[in-house]
């Protein structure tokens, strides 16, 4: 047998290459580096925006069969619901006619009183209608995607509401859509005002049962089950007077200085389809005044080293 026809390559058992442990270590280090770089320097933000814009037509195309099925079911039941809603709306319209007349009178008196006291006119909040496309796939967060983005005028931090109350806040904006973090998310927080006692506090998401929790409230604080909580408007983001929720449970413990207060959201989180995106109040508020320069530096006054300056009008 000629020697040139023999296979001289070593069998796979004796082949040398990069160990699997070394490959694992390199890939792990690269993954940690990319996560840290993205969190610190936002390197992948343009890539995310590009992918979100490119995948939006595909997402809408995939949602067409689902929307058709839901639309057919809604149309079959919509006639009876429409007739019942029409009768209910007529009854409510008769009741609200008197309230509307009184509301116009109160609004006129309010504007006259504000002009008499030379108060600043109330802020006019601009809004933008949007539709909820789908909920985020992360099981550890409560976020939804809406079909309005930066090209439509949605700003980062904009409040999102519906007819029942506050739903959440815009936390990420893309060119054609945006991400809304709901109030029940574990990282969500909102300043609230008790309508009965006019006491301010802060509500945090992530409570048990998908609700909210009032934290850092004293054990003897005046909070009762059923109290309505609204936005206080002191954060410069949410307009004042929007419904947030109601107190559902108050647990006062003797061995703890704080009470555990749970509340239910005013707006239903699940099943929301149409929302309003409001403009943050910080856009209309005047800028904060700059701090005045310090008159005395280093603890030295005019009277000498280490002595405070003499007060005006003091005897020599």
Molecular structure report:
- The chain has 2 helices and 12 strands.
- It is of the alpha+beta class and 316 residues long.
- It has a domain of 157 residues: Thrombin, subunit H (Beta Barrel), CATH 2.40.10.340.
- The chain has a 6-stranded antiparallel barrel with strand order 1-2-5-4-3-12. A 6-stranded antiparallel beta barrel has the order 6-7-8-11-10-9.
- The longest helix is centred in the first third of the chain and has 72 residues.
- The C terminus is likely disordered.
Task: Indicate the topology.
Blueprint: H1 20-41, H2 45-116, E1 127-135, E2 143-146, E3 159-161, E4 166-173, E5 178-182, E6 189-194, E7 200-204, E8 212-218, E9 228-231, E10 243-251, E11 258-265, E12 274-278
Antiparallel strand pairs: 1-2, 1-12, 2-5, 3-4, 3-12, 4-5, 6-7, 6-9, 7-8, 8-11, 9-10, 10-11
Task: Briefly say what this structure is.
The protein has 316 residues and is an alpha+beta fold.
Using brief descriptors, characterize the structure shown.
disordered C terminus, 23% strand, six-stranded antiparallel beta barrel, 2 helices, Thrombin, subunit H, alpha+beta, six-stranded antiparallel barrel
Contiguous low-pLDDT stretches (5 residues minimum) are 298-316
Beta strand count = 12
CATH level 1 name of one domain:
Mainly Beta
* CATH topology term of one domain: Thrombin, subunit H
Mean pLDDT: 81
The radius of gyration is 30 Å
**What fraction of the residues are assigned to beta strands by DSSP?**
15-25%
- H/E element string? HHEEEEEEEEEEEE
Q: Name the CATH homologous superfamily of one domain.
A: Rod shape-determining protein MreC, domain 1
Level-2 CATH architecture of one domain: Beta Barrel
Question: How large is the count of helical segments?
Answer: 2
Helix content: 25-40%
Q: Sheet bearing the most strands, described?
A: 6 strands, antiparallel, barrel
The class by helix and strand makeup works out as alpha+beta
Give the end-to-end Cα distance, rounded to a whole number of Å. Answer: 123 Å
- What is the overall shape? extended
Strand ordering within the main sheet = 1-2-5-4-3-12
């Amino acid at each position: 047998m000629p020697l040139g026809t023999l296979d001289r390559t070593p069998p796979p058992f004796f082949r040398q290459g990069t160990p699997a442990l070394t490959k694992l270590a390199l890939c792990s280090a690269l993954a940690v580096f990319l996560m840290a770089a993205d969190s610190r320097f936002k390197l992948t933000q343009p890539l995310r925006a590009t992918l979100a814009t490119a995948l939006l037509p595909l997402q809408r195309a995939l949602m067409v069969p689902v929307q058709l099925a839901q639309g057919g079911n809604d149309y079959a039941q919509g006639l009876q619901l429409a007739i019942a809603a029409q009768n209910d709306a007529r009854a409510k319209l008769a009741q609200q006619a008197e309230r509307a007349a009184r509301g116009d009178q109160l609004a006129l008196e309010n504007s006259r009183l504000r002009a008499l006291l030379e108060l600043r006119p109330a802020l006019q909040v601009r809004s933008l209608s949007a539709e909820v496309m789908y909920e985020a796939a992360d099981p550890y967060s409560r976020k939804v995607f809406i079909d309005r983005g930066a090209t439509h005028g949605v700003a980062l931090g904009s409040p999102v509401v519906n007819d029942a109350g506050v739903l959440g806040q815009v936390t990420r904006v893309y060119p054609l859509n945006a991400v809304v973090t709901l109030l029940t998310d574990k990282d969500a927080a909102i300043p609230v005002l008790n309508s009965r006692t006019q006491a301010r506090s802060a509500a945090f998401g992530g409570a048990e049962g998908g609700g909210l929790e009032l934290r850092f409230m004293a054990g003897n604080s005046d909070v009762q089950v059923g109290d309505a909580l609204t936005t206080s408007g002191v954060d410069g983001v949410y307009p004042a007077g929007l419904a947030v929720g109601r107190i559902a449970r108050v647990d006062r413990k003797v061995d703890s200085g704080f009470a555990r207060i749970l509340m239910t959201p005013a707006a239903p989180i699940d099943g929301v389809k149409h929302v309003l995106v409001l403009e943050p109040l910080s856009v209309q508020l005047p800028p904060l005044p700059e701090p005045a320069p310090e008159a005395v530096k280093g603890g030295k006054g005019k009277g000498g080293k280490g002595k405070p300056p003499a007060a005006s009008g003091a005897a020599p």
